[in-house]
Write a structure and sequence with these properties.
The complex is a heterodimer of chains A (about 220) and B (about 220). By secondary structure, chain A is α+β, with helices and mostly antiparallel strands. Helices cover about 50% and strands about 15% of the residues of chain A. Chain A has helices at about 20-30, 35-40, 40-45, 90-100, 100-110, 120-130, 145-165, 170-185, 200-225, and strands at about 5, 10-15, 50-60, 80-85, 135-140. Chain A has a 4-stranded antiparallel beta sheet, covered by helices on one side. In chain A, a hairpin with a 2-residue loop joins β1 (about 5) and β2 (about 10-15). In chain A, α7 (about 145-165) packs antiparallel against α8. The two termini of chain A are about 30 Å apart. Chain B has 2 domains: about 5-130, no CATH class; about 145-220. Chain B is built from 6 helices and 6 strands. Chain B has helices at about 25-35, 90-105, 120-130, 145-165, 170-185, 210-220, and strands spanning about 5, 10-15, 50-60, 75-85, 130, 135-140. In chain B, strands 1, 2, 3, 4 and 5 form a 5-stranded antiparallel beta sheet that branches. In chain B, a hairpin with a 2-residue loop joins β1 and β2. Chain B is elongated and about 75 Å long. The chains are: A alpha+beta (about 220), B alpha+beta (about 220). Chains A and B meet through β2, α1, β3, β4 and β5 of A and β2, α1, β3, β4 and β6 of B.
Chain lengths: ~220, ~220
């Protein structure tokens, strides 16, 4: 069980909301997707530690029922599923959200049952803790990279390729001049990515144990075959 | 639409798990399966084309918020699959089935109606039945193809090394070094050299300076 994969943390939060109020939340999310209102989500962009995040409102009849043998759900509340992939620790993330977009949070969790508002911080922490579910398997295609690393890498790649295309490298002096311009242009995006900093020591310990278990299992399977 | 942002798709599936019987807890069996999946580049999801980040967990029940809220419980347990990927849903699901069919069968093996899934087309149809629509999907990246992103990460890492290694060199040396750098990193080649999906550490062979050092030894 781990919410951590490399530099990413997976948060899952499930919270109830009265069914007759859920349409207001749907309207808020719908408006949040419109260009005019998306400026109100600017805080999310400012929180550049987020890879991807989503909210899904699921009413009782929207819980999938695939077979007659599956009992019908009898719940009354609509449930809001929140999923986030972010860089850093749980505290850093929740605190950043609380500080950068408190009003946005209060809109997204508008009238959720017992939602305490994002300010003050401690009741908000308790609310998220109470409603969080642990991930059983988490996969990240780039454990070494943060969301900012990916954006920076895309910018470097674009400029580097353009530099290679535009320069025929005839004169070393001209090349050096253009190279220095390129370096000046991309220097804010350059950085060496390392497995550190780790998000949590306990997550690292769990990972080491699991890797050892995996090797032991494979060795046992090989020796018994 | 809440499932798409730029070129990224956010798919959320709630897959009902079979009811426990006297001998088996199918939700626990599903959880055990998830807990023992290999991690990172050994995860089956590393083989699924264009997967950025994804997670799986078992939803046992909903949480009671305390009085005066109503206490209520789910009748079924659900396997929740939340994945972020590049491209369209059906192509992704077909790619997933074709890449890791055996793992998919193991993971979803205790889910209701999954026994009817025999082909990639069946898997797409099954996933559609389990999908819930996102109300809002936030994409903090560019949503480009994964191989482009991994190549970009590789290039940025090696260009950072290049900039440090060649600081203060003469124009002639710098130009020669850059020519070698471009020949080694092959910026237009998305297949190689590049970072592998789920990679947790760089091998020496991926580092451009390893190759230039080897060449120098060869010429010496």
């Amino acid at each position: 069980m781990s919410n951590i994969a490399g530099k990413a943390y997976a948060m899952n939060v499930v919270t109830p909301i009265k069914w007759y109020r859920a349409w207001i939340n749907r309207l808020i999310f719908w408006a949040g997707g419109l260009p005019f209102f998306s400026s109100h989500l600017k805080g999310l962009t400012t929180l550049s530690l987020i890879h991807y995040a989503r909210w899904a409102l699921v009413s009782p009849r929207q819980f999938p029922r695939l077979d007659e043998s599956q009992p019908k759900e009898t719940i009354k509340y609509t449930y809001m599923f929140f999923f986030s992939n972010f860089n850093g620790s749980w505290n850093q993330y929740v605190d950043s959200f609380h500080m950068a977009i408190p009003a946005g949070l209060d809109l997204f969790w508008h009238k959720n049952i017992k939602y305490p508002n994002s300010i003050p911080l401690q009741p908000f922490h308790s609310y998220i803790n109470h409603n969080q579910i642990w991930t059983n398997h988490y996969y990240n295609a780039y454990p070494l990279a943060t969301s900012n690393d990916i954006k920076a890498a895309i910018a470097v790649k674009k400029k580097l390729k353009k530099f290679i295309e535009l320069n025929n490298f005839d004169s070393p002096e001209l090349f050096q001049k253009e190279y220095n311009k390129l370096l000046n242009d991309v220097q804010e995006h350059l950085n060496l990515m390392e497995p550190t900093p780790i998000v949590s020591l306990s997550a690292e310990a769990v990972e080491k144990r699991r890797t050892a278990d995996h090797h032991r299992f494979r060795n046992r399977a090989a020796s018994s075959s | 639409m809440g499932n798409i942002s730029k070129n990224a798709y956010g798919m959320t599936l709630l897959c009902p798990i079979r009811q426990d019987d006297a001998a088996h807890s199918y939700s626990n069996l599903t959880r055990d399966c998830l807990e023992t999946l290999p991690l990172h580049d050994n995860s089956p999801m590393a083989k699924v084309p264009n997967t950025y980040l994804c997670r799986l967990y078992v939803l046992d029940d909903v949480f009671y918020q305390g009085a005066p809220a109503n206490e209520e419980h789910l009748k079924s347990k659900y396997l929740v699959f939340c994945t972020n990927f590049h491209g369209d849903r059906d192509t992704y699901l077909r790619g997933m089935w074709n890449a890791v069919q055996e793992d998919v069968k193991r993971i979803w093996g205790y889910c209701i109606a999954f026994d009817k899934v025999k082909t990639a087309g069946d898997f797409v149809a099954y996933a559609k039945q389990c999908q819930v629509t996102n109300s809002l999907f936030f994409n903090g990246s560019d949503g480009g193809p994964l191989d482009e992103q991994l190549k970009a990460l590789y290039l940025r890492q090696e260009f950072t090394r290049f900039a440090f290694d060649n600081f203060g060199k003469s124009a002639v040396e710098l130009q020669q070094a850059f020519r070698e750098f471009v020949a080694i990193v092959q910026p237009d080649n998305l297949q190689t050299p590049t970072w592998a999906p789920g990679m947790t550490q760089e091998t020496q062979q991926l580092q451009y300076s390893f190759h230039t050092a080897a060449r120098k030894e060869e010429y010496a």
